């Protein structure tokens, strides 16, 4: 096993520190849109969530994204993000299991 520095980020919902690749980034773009950013490279203020819908729902309930993005996030946006989250979750987990996304 090669020792490698794994960048850790905190999930804004459950507050756990996890490797970046296990988290889904939500970004507030300069145009003030709130989007899921699977590339992790979009410009804007980012917040990280575990790649599970349960953590997303926790964030929605506690309005964790509002705080993390320093912008009010409307219920409609949370609903839209939840749909996006569900649709990317499967692909996200499959990519994570391959475990070969070294940069
Ligand atoms: Zn979490």
Number of domains: 1
Percentage of helical residues? 25-40%
Mean pLDDT: 90
Output the structural class: alpha+beta
Query: Using only CA atoms, what is the Rg?
Result: 13 Å
Largest sheet, spatial ordering of strands: 4-3-5
Put simply, the count of helices is: 3
Distance between the termini: 18 Å
Order of helices and strands: EEEEEHHH
Q: What does the overall shape look like?
A: globular
Domain YlxR: 9-83
Pfam families: YlxR
InterPro entries: YlxR, YlxR-like_sf, YlxR_dom
Protein name: Nucleic-acid-binding protein
Commentary on this structure:
By secondary structure, the chain is of the alpha+beta class. The chain has a single domain (8-96), classed as Hypothetical Cytosolic Protein, Chain: A. It is built from three helices and five strands; from the N terminus they run βββββααα. It has a three-stranded antiparallel β-sheet. Strands 1-2 form a two-stranded antiparallel ribbon. A hairpin with a 6-residue loop joins strand 1 (8-10) and strand 2 (17-19). Helix 1 (53-62) packs antiparallel against helix 3. The protein starts with 7 loop residues before the first strand and ends in a 5-residue tail after the last helix. The model has no long low-confidence stretch (mean pLDDT 90). The chain binds zinc ion. Zinc ion (ZN) binds next to strand 5. InterPro entries: YlxR (IPR037465), YlxR-like_sf (IPR035931), YlxR_dom (IPR007393). Residues 9-83 form the YlxR domain. This is Nucleic-acid-binding protein. It comes from Paenibacillus beijingensis.
């Amino acid at each position: 096993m090669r020792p490698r520095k794994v960048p850790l980020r905190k999930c804004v919902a459950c507050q756990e520190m996890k490797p970046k690749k296990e988290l889904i980034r939500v970004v507030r773009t300069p145009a003030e849109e709130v989007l899921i950013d699977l590339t992790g490279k979009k410009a804007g203020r980012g917040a990280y969530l575990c790649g599970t819908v349960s953590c997303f729902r926790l964030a929605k309930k506690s309005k964790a994204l509002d705080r993390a993005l320093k912008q009010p996030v409307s219920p409609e946006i949370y609903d839209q993000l939840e749909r996006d989250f569900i649709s990317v979750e499967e692909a996200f987990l499959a990519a994570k299991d391959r475990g070969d996304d070294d940069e």
